[in-house]
User: Fold this.
Amino acid sequence: MNRHQTLTSILRRAGFLAALFLLLAAATARAADDPNKLVIDAEEAYRQGKYEESARVYEKLVELAPHDPAVLYNLGTAYARVNQRGLAIWRYLQAERLMPRERTIKENLRILAPEIDQQLAISPLPPIDWVYNYLTANEWGRLAAGALVLVCLLGALYFWLPRENPRRQWVMKGVWLAGLLAAASWPFALMHFFRAEVWQGVVVAEGTVARTGPSESQIENFALPAGTVVRIMESTTQEWVKISFAGGRVGFIKKEQVRFL
Amino acid sequence: MWNRSPHHPLRLPLLLLLGLGMVASAAAQQPGTGLTRFEALVDKTQLGVGEPFIFTLVIEYTSNQMSAPPTDPDFGKVRITGGPSQSSQVVSTNFSSAKAIFTKQWELMAPAEGRYIIGVSTLQFSNQSHETKAVTIQATQDASASALPDDLKNEPVLFAKSKETRVNQMLEGRLFLRPAISNKEPYVGEAVIIKYDVLNDRVRVDFGGSNMVLPQVQGALKEEIFQANSIDNKTVTYNGRQFALAPLYYYAVIPSKPGELSIDGMTIDARLPTSTSRDPLDDFFSGPMFARGLPVTLPSPPVILKVKPLPDGAPPEFSGTVGDFQMEMPPPATALTEDDMITLELVLSGKGAIELADAPVFPASDDFDVVGQSAKAEKEVTPDTFGGKKIFEIVLRPKHAGRLNLPPLKYGIFNPREGQYKTLETKPVSFQVAPGNNKGTSAPEGENAPKSRQMTTRDLNYLLPVANLRTLRPGLIFQDPLFWLAQLAAAGLLIFCWRRDRRRGRMNAGELRRSKAWPTFNKRIREIRRRIDKGENVEETAGALEHAARALIADRFGQSPEGLTRRDIAELLQTGSMSTDRINRLLDILELCSTVRYAPAGMINGNLTQWTDEVTQLLKEGVRE
Assistant:
């Protein structure tokens, strides 16, 4: 074998090894971030009672799937196990927004925060709250839009039919029914729509105290236990946010003490 | 005196004197460059702390113009409260000469006791530099105390000031703003009430439309208690002297850190009415808009508080609350189940900054978990008291059934009146807790799980299965254009159909019938062709063709189809410019259709399709769509 052939052979082998190395590295990296593996690891840690470890893994999962209600709920449960009440309530509320009818989430949330219904109430009548929270924002939107489209289609059919056609009266009854459904669903859909513009947050730090101004030197005003739901009015500085609490009380807390919903 | 002798002995000296006077006068008339005066003046050199005084630069000169204004002096630590204001005027000194007077004024104030030196001012005039002399001011705390009754001599008071020195002397001790401070050496967090009252000893003064400058507080919390909308006098007596006292402005200050806290005083402007005219119309013009009177200012010195730190030795349960408070807790219900929540209500009441009172800390307990807390303050603020009550609600959840004991809740405060820490305690409470029903699904504990976790997690449900991980964000449907497009399209369709229905409704029966004639005919022809294709009953199919043609002609011409004769049809079709041959051919086909029962079956089947086509064609010619 001459020199040229030897060099070619060496280069070929080196290239093969480099490609193999890259494949292995990619596979390892992929395995590390594999969501399914993370789910298994998190559940296994929880089963073994290693709740902090479980919470850490679920946090990684949340980065990959921030809108999965089951992941959020499980993370909240892991936090509850390690007495991180504020973080647990925050994650439960996020999960509940995505799966409002899931009984498991509601039960755990009410165990940790029995007063949460009062803090989140949108009306003084509990049945209205129940109906409002029964569907997600998108579900209400689809229902309202569907009802309105049905009203329009049935109405179009009504006007299309000849006036002497006896089927017209049945079509009109359908229009009325669809109209009632639209009238009932649009207010809830709009409430969700406008509420989406309002920033809500959960206090996660223990011993949080709202101050009269965005500075440590300002006077302490009122205490906010971890898990309290607040409305975030504005971000006054890089460190502080202005919040309002039940009863219209206003104060300033540090951004690190609250999490956005 | 003069005699008529031409050789009087005084004549020559007098002539010489007159000549000298004329020369001097002539010299004075010439436009010379004389600076006759450049001076710095103050209206007083001995004054009280915070008392305003006027500093004036005066320049008198006889040249046509001053080339440059004087430089401002260095005022040092003296505070400038107004100005500078400038004025120039020309004054005739005699028939032939004049002088210019330029003044520049500042209103100043000495902020604290001591000696102050106002530096020199420099003026360049006729290529020469001129300087004023430095001015020394001595400020003392009680410079104005001599005119006050003995009971008020130690109070920090400044008398009313105007621009008239004579009036100021008259007002000394008779018209002033008096700040009353409830405590000049408070503790940190202790509320101090500061009141400003106007005291007046028989001085006619008008406060209508007056301007008030309120004190600004920095480095402490301020809360207004009272601000007067009008002057309401009541009579008070100090050492036999009667004053009219009018409350003006009250507020509370809660210092947040120890040390010296200085708060600027407040001022209020007023007018001393002057009645110089005997014109009866003067009263009409003496209102605020046309007020004639001497403006006067009632100043007040800064308020200095020496804030003391809280003493050492705070108990462990000290909450940081300062005030003279008491605590009560109404007894809660003591018979409950594990599923019940207990709401404790602690009421803290008394004098002090009640809003700043921190929530009590519930101690770690084997029997209860704290699941919620809230607080609500109700202030009670009067000119003499600053306090109220604050209600803390603590929601507890029993950890287990049985007899559970709530230990006394301790709340440490600092009472500034007594100068010591106090611990407020509730009474212990015993609860009888029955087992609950609503346990939920218990979470299985791992082998390594610690035995005593917080009871809030005891009844937590287990994990949810994670399947089909949702990695995408579910967008808000309201932001999807399709959401709105679908509704708009449906609404558009509804409007279109509605308008069509309206148009249709506006047609009369005849028009309606005419408009439907061809669609109905076409529908019937399709049905006939279908029957022919399927080989259905020939007689019925032929009859249907004849009926369809008759119905079309009847609908288009507003006739009854059954009553149309051959002649009627011919006449109607002739109006459509159809030829006679074509009309006859149509009529023949229709007759054949009506007599089809008599025709041999084989012949009719093949002809029906042809007849259908022919009838359709002929009618299209004769009957316009």
Summary: Chain A touches chain B through 68 residues (CB under 8 Å). The first helix of chain A runs from residue 3 to 32. The first strand of chain A starts at residue 199 and ends at 203.
